[in-house]
Amino acid sequence: MKNMHDMTFISIRKAPAIAACWFLAATLLAAHAMAAAPETVWARFKQNFVAPDGRVIDTGQDGISHSEGQGVAMLLAVHHGDRASFERIWQWTKANLQVREDNLLAWRWTPEAGISDKNNASETYWLRSWSGSESRWLR
C-alpha cells in the first residue's frame, strides 16, 4: 500500500491532465452552445422584446419604444436573414416614429401617449441606413 505522501504526489502530477480534460470538455460544450446560439438568441429577443406589430419594447423603461431600439432590431433582422421581422419592425417604425416634417424619426414613443418626444436620435440614422444598405429591404 502506498503512503499518503505518494498519493498526494500522484494526484498533483495528474492535476494538469485532469484540468486539461475539464478545459477541453468546457470548450467543446461552449462551442456547441455558440453554434446553436444565433437563431436561439434572435428568437428569444423577438419573443421578449418585439411585439407582433413590429414595435420593439424597452422593458427596462416602462414599455416605451424608441428609434434606437427599432434600428438595432432591424439590423439584427438583417444579420439573421429575417426579412419578415425586418418588414414588420420597419413598417411600425415608419407609421409611428416617422412623424416629423423632415422625415427624421422621433425618438420616444409611449404606450399611453404615442410620441412623447419628437427629438431625433442621430445613431438611429446610421442603424437604419446600415440595415437598409446591407439588406436592400428598406423601402
List key phrases describing it.
single chain; 139 residues; mainly alpha; 2 domains; 3-stranded antiparallel sheet; 4 helices; 63% helix
Describe the protein's architecture and organization.
- The chain is mainly alpha-helical.
- Helix content is 63%, strand content 6%.
- The protein folds into two domains: 36 residues; 86 residues, no CATH class.
- It has a three-stranded antiparallel sheet.
- Strand 2 and strand 3 form a beta hairpin.
- The radius of gyration is 25 Å and the shape is globular.
- The N and C termini lie far apart (80 Å).
- About 12% of the residues have low confidence.
Helix and strand arrangement:
Elements: H1 4-49, E1 65-66, H2 67-79, H3 83-97, E2 108-110, E3 114-117, H4 122-135
Antiparallel strand pairs: 1-2, 2-3
Helix pairs in contact: 2-3, 2-4
Straight-line N-to-C gap: 80 Å
Given the helix and strand composition, which structural class is it?
Answer: mainly alpha
Rounded to an integer in angstroms, the radius of gyration calculated over CA atoms is 25 Å
N-to-C SSE series?
Answer: HEHHEEH
Residue stretches low in confidence (pLDDT < 50, at least 5 long) are 6-10, 19-29
Count of structural domains? 2
Query: What is the arithmetic mean of pLDDT?
Result: 75
Beta fraction of the residues?
A: 5-15%
Helix coverage percent: 55-70%
What's the tally of helices?
4
Tell me the total number of β-strands.
3
How are the strands of the biggest sheet laid out side by side? 1-2-3
Shape category: globular
Give a short account of the largest sheet: 3 strands, antiparallel
Oligomer: single chain
